[in-house]
Amino acid sequence: MQNQPVLGIDIGGSGIKGALVDLAAGDFVTDRVRIATPEESTPANVAAIVAEIVSGFADQMGDGPIGITIPAVVTHGISRSAANIHKSWIDAPAEQIFSDHLGRQVVLVNDADAAGVAEVKFGAAKGNEGLVLVTTLGTGIGSALIYRGVLIPNTELGHLEIDGHDAETQAAASVKTALGLSYEEYVPRLQRYYETLEALFWPDLLVVGGGVSKASDKFLPKLNLKTPIVPAHLRNRAGIIGAAWLAVDKVENPDRPS
Ligand code: BGC
Question: Per-residue confidence of the chain (258 residues) as pLDDT tens digits?
Fold first, then answer.
């Protein structure tokens, strides 16, 4: 991994965040900049905000790639889904749209995949050589499956159908907020979700990220699982750090299919 700081950008439903990342240390070398996500969060509108963030860092970075996350499936630079974002992302050549706006190479990745990679390389699952399943509990539920340090991208396990429901509509942190659930009331929903993941994937470690993981002591100890389950360490830095890591990884391995 290279020494020069790399820009990571994390696109979320309410904010677009960016920071320069030192990939040797696995941490930011600048403050995190945040601009609100535009109301109409189409690819072009979001790209304009990303360009604003990039220009703020331009004189501190080289001409290397920029890693960008979005809360959608991404295959070969195309965004394929839009569960909680503007529907115009579906089948948009999003990576190309960003690189056209920015005049730089862009590597676009799923937000949970980026967070998961960061937790395995630098965070709660650092050094784990087994099967790690990272989930992010937020507006939706994101997932990253990483085996022996290698990401299996776009797992979308927030959309597992459990008891006839799309899992994220029952167990995302936004559901806790929308229904005004106490942690006590939220725990059975998480129990059902994580016991299903466990029965289907048998991971060595479960990592729980997303804003709600700040209060993990209120719910993780109450879950009854066979698998160790731990809070994410990098929290709201994970997406940015993972995006930067995946960008450099892609550029250093140009012949690998994306
Ligand atoms: C999306 C995923 C995303 C997750 C977290 C889900 O609704 O389908 O692609 O990773 O939310 O943002």
Answer: 557 899 999 999 899 999 999 999 999 999 999 999 999 999 999 999 999 999 999 999 988 999 999 999 999 999 999 988 999 999 999 999 999 999 999 999 999 999 999 999 999 999 999 999 999 999 999 999 999 999 999 999 999 999 999 999 999 999 999 999 999 999 999 999 999 999 999 999 999 999 899 999 999 999 999 999 999 999 889 999 999 999 999 999 988 877
Cα(256) to centroid of ligand 1, in Å?
Answer: 25
Residues within a 6 A CB radius of ligand 1: 71-73, 81, 83-84, 110-112, 136, 138, 140, 142, 156, 158, 168
Domains with residue ranges and CATH for the chain: 6-110+237-252 (3.30.420.40), 124-232 (3.30.420.40)
- What sign does the dihedral 258-44-118-162 (CA atoms) show? negative
Looking from the CA of residue 110, the nearest atom of ligand 1 is 10
- In this prediction the pTM is 0.97
Q: How far is the CA of 206 from the centre of ligand 1 (A)?
A: 17
Atom of ligand 1 at shortest range from CA of 83: 7
Atom 9 of ligand 1, residue of closest alpha carbon: 72
